[in-house]
Amino acid sequence: MKIFDALNFGTQYLKNYVSEPRLEAEGLLSFLLGVGREYIIVNRDKELSENIFERYKGLLDLRKDGMPYQYIVGKKHFMGLIFKVSPNVLIPRNDTEVLVEEVLKRLQKNDVVLDIGTGSGAIAVSIAKYKDVKVYAVDISDDALSVARDNAYENGVLDKIVFLKSDLFSSVPKDVKFDVIVSNPPYIRSGDIDKLQEEVKKEPKIALDGGEDGLLFYRKIVRDSKEYIKSSGIIAFEVGYDEAGDVSRILLDGGYGNIEIVKDLQGIDRVVLGKWLGS
What does this protein do (predicted)? Predict the structure, then answer.
């Protein structure tokens, strides 16, 4: 079978299961062959061995059954960088780029940043890549921290990030005060987990489940942050589509002011920021 025929097969195979079947069919085949998409286009008449085609069908089956494309190919583009991803970490979303961009706008040289629930390290690594700051990145999962360290190394910022296994602030040194605390915490309501798309359900539940009302981790982070944040320091959260108002109130009740809400590219309130008013 020729590359052209395999791509047509893959496109038809996925067309009822993904939004961009041709693009994903090309991506999976180029991943399998270890080449760029350009190679596939130029070599559309090249013959594929039966073994390669069977392996290609295996990848198509994984995708058809709801395995996220990014887990199959093992990477995700984010903030102009490439991140390794695995089923041990949440796949970075484009919406989260808004959170990173808002933090980058507010950082000064030599600031100290805490990223809570770092996962793949997408937030921490991006901040360290684009600003001359020190970042502490914490996660409760050893597997996630391993992925995050790999991403820091691959993107050349391993020396700028301190990785800690920590349940929120539990292992964060109390003698370190932060200019910015940033987090994209789990914020899906527990009762909504089973209603998620099948491919989202393949992601780690610990990175999705935000408790009964989706606000559990916002409350905990705001409550405990006051021991770790500098005077006039900033907290920045990604929030669920209907949670900006609730998270703003949690911040206000926790001693933060100057609340800002930033929309994502779809016009949804996606980022909430507050300034610590204590000393």
Answer: Methylates the class 1 translation termination release factors RF1/PrfA and RF2/PrfB on the glutamine residue of the universally conserved GGQ motif.
119 is in an annotated binding site: yes
Give pLDDT, residue 177.
97
CATH for 3-65, options being 3.30.1490, 1.10.260, 1.10.8, 1.10.10:
1.10.8
155 labeled part of a ligand binding site: no
Q: How far apart are CA 238 and CA 258, in angstroms?
A: 17
| d(C-alpha 161, C-alpha 137), whole Å | 7
- Is 74 annotated among the ligand-binding residues? no
What is the pLDDT at residue 1?
A: 87
- pLDDT above 90: residue 187: yes
27 is in an annotated binding site: no
**Per-residue pLDDT reduced to its tens digit, 130-173:** 999 999 999 999 999 999 999 999 999 999 999 999 999 999 99
34 is annotated as contributing to ligand binding: no
Q: Is 21 annotated among the ligand-binding residues?
A: no
pTM: 0.94
Distance between CA atoms of residues 212 and 43, nearest Å:
53
For domain 84-276, give the fold: Rossmann fold (3.40.50)
The candidate with the shortest Cα–Cα distance to 207, out of 187, 225, 181, 237, is 187
Lookup: tokens for 30: 């180029």
Residue 11 annotated as binding? no
Q: Does 68 count as an annotated binding residue?
A: no
Domain with CATH 3.40.50.150 in the chain: 84-276
User: Could you tell me the pLDDT band of residue 50, with boundaries at 50, 70 and 90?
Assistant: very high
